[in-house]
Amino acid sequence: MGSNDESLVAAHVQGDRAAFRELVQRYGDSLLGYLFRMTGNRDQAEDLFQETFKRVHEKAHTFRGRNFKSWLFTIATRAAIDTARRRKRRVVLSPVAGGDCDEERGPQLDTLTASEDAVDPAETLVQDERKAQVRQAVETLPAKQRATLVLAYYQQLSYREVADVMGCSLGTVKTQMSRALATLARKLPDSVGVTK
Amino acid sequence: MNGHLTERQLIDYEFDLASESQAKEARAHLEQCDACRAKLDELKRKFASLDLLRDEISASEALISKAVENAASPKPARIIAVRRWPWLGTAAAVVVVGFMFLLVSNLGPGQRGEEVASDQRPFPDDAPTAVDLGYGTAKQLAPSSQRPQTVRSRLMMKPAAEPMTVAATDPHSIEIAEKPPFAPASAIELVVLPRRQDVQLTIYNAADLTLVREKRNLTLKRGWNWLQFMWANTLIDPTSLSLEPMEHKDQVDIQQLVFPPRLRELGRWLIRSEVSGQVPFELTYFTSGLSWRAFYMGTLSQDEKTMHLEGYVRVVNDSGEDYEDAQTRLIVGKVHLLDEIRALAQRQYAYGSPVPEGLGMKDGSAAGLAGADRRNETYEYGEGEAIGKRFARRLGSLERKEIRKEGLSEYFLYTIDGTETIPNQWGKRLLSSETKEIPVSSLYKHDEQRWGAQAVRYLSFANDEEHKLGETPLPDGMVRIYGWADAEGHLSYVGGTGVKYIPVGEEVELNLGPARLVEVEPTLMDFRTANYVFDANDNIAGWDEVRTWKIEIANARTVPVEIEATRAFETPYWTLPFDDKSVAYEKYDATHARFKLNVPARTKRRFEYTVTTYYGVRAETPVKRQSKRTN
């Protein structure tokens, strides 16, 4: 299409369904990646993905002169933090979901299949183990610190953009990021399979 | 700069988090300090591992379509897409299944049917693929690339409130697999994330036990469904979990509840459904941590002849779970529990060790059941069917907690009107009853043997119709009584006491503690001995002791009071002639006499009595010591 985000939003508000689909396609990958890193669970991330775009759909008429990406990630961040808060202490009656078992069961079949092409399968397994440790370290961060880290480090937003998404000051973002990194410095593995 | 840079300073410098001046300072220090540079390099290496999570994650076309349609639909169903997440632990099974698929694809349809039907091996052909579960043979034959789309569109199209439908257009074209799916952890799917529709709490206070009954609408698909229940950080007893469909009972069958090894605090139900759509279920379980206690506040009228009684119930939730809009019922009565629910809830595994006692492992080899990983498989498809059955029986026998009951008459149920939201770690006080103008009577009791010199105030009423009560028993709890302190209606605390469970029709006597304004003072006025009896050797063989007592009662209160004075004698051989008609006298028991009288406000009253006690042979010859009025 080649239109900018703002015109797509405007077209969507006018009832152009294709414009909304274009927005979803444009930001689908980065948003899903963000939500997956926030939740550590693919199913949950897809749930939040849908919830985020539903809110975008519903609130599009309120979107005025902002950066669409920031607005989208703001909605996604709120949804992810709300979910994390709700899930903290709760009896969850949920369908059996693959992501719940990831950490317990070790590498998944996808990983195993990929390892068939690797030179050394043992090395791949070690790498997977390390990856699990990193994921675990990131998941232990408080929700806001995790969101800041994921937005700044993985989504490569500037700190100012992160502040815009999180709805806080630049100083707060830097403090959150600094705290997150300090925590990770303690929890990330020094070398393969070793954590302090 | 003094000393070295801290880790935090290094992080801030590396990630552009430091202010300009701090960054400049740090840069200058790093140029000179090898140690800090080495530390920074170490940190960089460490943070480089974050890049391991930089996998490209892409949103599939199906997800994008779903998001677009879901956004446009007014009421989306909460959907978790069917996913394929096989585990490394089941890699071997996957290889076997792949091989079996290749084999099956080379057979004709008739041969394939026979193969499935006659398969009795631990790893059936259709086992490890999540999508295949519940779709039976006909769908299993569809090209694999089409299956996820089929499932997703079906799930997405069904709003939560959609009425029940049969999934297949031709029910005979889709058969549900005879066998339940293999390996729940590797066969992952299902459709709904239901909220509670309704919840009822029945709190048995005596045993730290609460029965929770929840109603939830689960969206089932036709075929086999797995449903997961997690109870982390709560005090739910996993051995008590029970799930029952409330509709379509003949078409929905709860097959089993499994507790996968190594996955703590979760259970999975296997549900076989002939229908597709929403089915209301009732989930019941026991939890501990919820408790309640009753307490009462009584306010006496100015003349102290009636009382306004308010009953309260305080419910405390320390169960780890929030209960919203719960209908709350409270049970009065004792429950005999075989186990402490709290202890059961905190066990690592729902039924203890993942390898059940007495199953396999005869030779001590881990190969017997292949450890915890094989637990679920074992009792369904395990090497020995006998082992499987034994394990299944064991699960079945433990599934429901046995609570022995003495009969319903031992209990009484209090239901709190409406519903209450009781968040975790909250307490809530609720008014349970309010009764005005209950006739009460005050009695001041004096008994030196029991309470010393002070009189004690008692307030009595009965739990019956005459006293405007009697509809329900009163649960045990603390009672606090307040009285009028002045003419303006200010209240003062009169006294309080704990009461036991009060059945309907029973009288209640509340001990309100020592009376400050009513005094009873006994004084010995005269003592003498008489009627000595001597034996053949002129030794004393018996005698009488005669005492005269004066009892003086001072009432400093502004209302008249009734006094009950109990007098004790050391011997059961006594006589007490008493003629004062203004004082009620009775022999209370073998060694006690009791006097009752009214004392007007701000006055003193006194009475006297003479008691003769008998000793030796005088006690043995009652005929000889008969007097005008004896005991």
Q: What this model shows, in words?
A:
The complex is a heterodimer of chains A (196) and B (631). By secondary structure, chain A is mainly α. Chain A contains ten helices and one strand, in the order ααααβαααααα. Chain A has a domain of 102 residues: RNA polymerase sigma factor, region 2, helix turn helix motif (Rna Polymerase Sigma Factor, Chain: A, Orthogonal Bundle). Chain B folds into five domains: 44 residues, no CATH class; 98 residues, no CATH class; 204 residues, no CATH class; 75 residues, no CATH class; 103 residues, Chondroitinase Ac, Chain A, domain 3 (Sandwich). Chain B contains 13 helices and 27 strands. In chain B, strands 1, 2, 4, 7, 10, 13 and 14 form a seven-stranded mixed beta sheet that branches. Chain B has a six-stranded mixed beta sheet with strand order 20-17-16-23-26-25. In chain B, a hairpin with a 7-residue loop joins strand 5 and strand 6. In chain B, helix 1 crosses helix 2 and helix 10 crosses helix 11. The radius of gyration of chain B is 40 Å and the shape is elongated. The termini of chain B are far apart. The chains are: A mainly alpha (196), B alpha+beta (631). The interface between A and B is large, with 64 and 71 residues.
Summary tags:
heterodimer; A: 196 residues; mainly alpha; Rna Polymerase Sigma Factor, Chain: A; 71% helix; 2% strand; B: 631 residues; alpha+beta; 5 domains; 7-stranded mixed β-sheet; 6-stranded mixed β-sheet; 13 helices; 27 strands; elongated; disordered C terminus
Total DSSP E strands of chain A: 1
CATH superfamily of the domain at 1-102 in chain A: RNA polymerase sigma factor, region 2, helix turn helix motif
Strand % of chain B is 35-45%
Please tell me the total number of domains of chain B.
5
Total strand segments of chain B: 27
